[in-house]
Amino acid sequence: MTDGKRMWGGRFRAETDARVQAFTSSWRFDRRLWPYDIAGSIAHARMLAACGIITLQEGETLVAGLERVREELAQGTFPFRQEYEDIHMNIEVRLTELVGPVGGKLHTARSRNDQVATDMHMYIMDECRAIQEGIVVLQGVLLDKAEKELDTVMPGYTHLQRAQPILYSHYLLAYFEMLARDYERFADCYGRANRLPLGAGALAGTTFPIDRQSVAQELGFAEVYRNSIDAVSDRDFVIEFLAAAAITMLHLSRLCEELIIWCSQEFGFLEMDDSFATGSSIMPQKKNPDVAELVRGKTGRVYGSLISLLTTMKGLPLAYHTDMQEDKQCTFDAVDTLRDCLHLVAGMMDTVQVRRERMAAAVEEDFSNATDLADYLVRQGLPFREAHAVVGRLVLDCLAQGKRLGDLSNEEWQAASPLLGEDARQAIDPRQCVAKRCSEGGTSPAMVAQALAVARQSLAKRWPDDKEN
Ligand code: ARG
Do the beta carbons of residue 210 and residue 51 sit within 8 Å? Predict the structure, then answer.
């Protein structure tokens, strides 16, 4: 069975070098999988008994023992031992200590290869749900804020140059949409992870008459892997999870970058709440957006996790290799990072102060109404390209004179184009510019109010019960 120390010690004459033991050991990090490992083992033991591979009595002893081990793990009294590589072996050894030699029957018709894959599947599925919850909370904050800012006009940017006026609510809803896609990506990931590897054995299946469907049912899996080699070799579901995490972080990093810029004195559109800002150890006047900077910075870490696992899996022959043990730390780190970031960004967005007067002043003093003046000319019958040229020349004149479009006299307007009537003044008022963008998905208050209602509905459908989507 074991040589006293090593579960696989039978065919070995020499002791394992201490450096090898330390190097190959993973329990310090894979212990996080214990709830799944216990649940998987209990389902496996029940199935072994139900299929007559072990006796019913033995099955009961194993399940009772595993429940005691679960209790110890939950209480923090479980004796982890360095000499047993991973969480799976640590649990099995402890089980055998508690129930005697029958503990050695648990691993019948099972390999750590299908065992660890099963644990990872359950872990990833749970984390998909947890992250979806975090996404929904942040979406809720964005919605609440968007509802309050239906009147707040600000410059919209392209190339970080003033482009056209927008509603701040419209901007917030853009992030709502991005997060809605993130939510769906985690739902997709959940769907593909929802497949049980257990029963694949080391790679080829097993000689025992097992019942994989009953294990899948007990553990709540929708189906079982059809191919035993694929079952133990697949880490696509982890990679997909990390890809979804990386994209979500990308979105958070864009939001945070804007917060950082907008909190600068140069923009001053937003002000970080004191509770979400930090100071400088040398410059007494500083209020730094550290949370936003850290989220932006941690995005790199999560990308790193994705690239790390993609690279680990690249070119790996079938089936299991110990390389795959490297799927854990990067995944755990990405999970912790993303969960924290979603939480912190929700708090930050909830508390950040909107400096409406600064936003309003900004749209008054720029040329972001130039498109609207061109659109006005188009409505008077001028082809858009010509209108564009007329307004472009007017902007040039204004720049030379230090004026804005609205500062030009009627005569100057008429000189540029006889089609430019007095009523064009109204058309270039920033609030008008916003109000008139009422095409579907546009920034007009009417469209944004509609979008808000749709967003509210979609969120209510998801939260808190929508576990299917
Ligand atoms: N600790 C291992 C992992 O995380 C468990 C599977 C080990 N299997 C093996 N044949 N060495 O991947």
Answer: yes
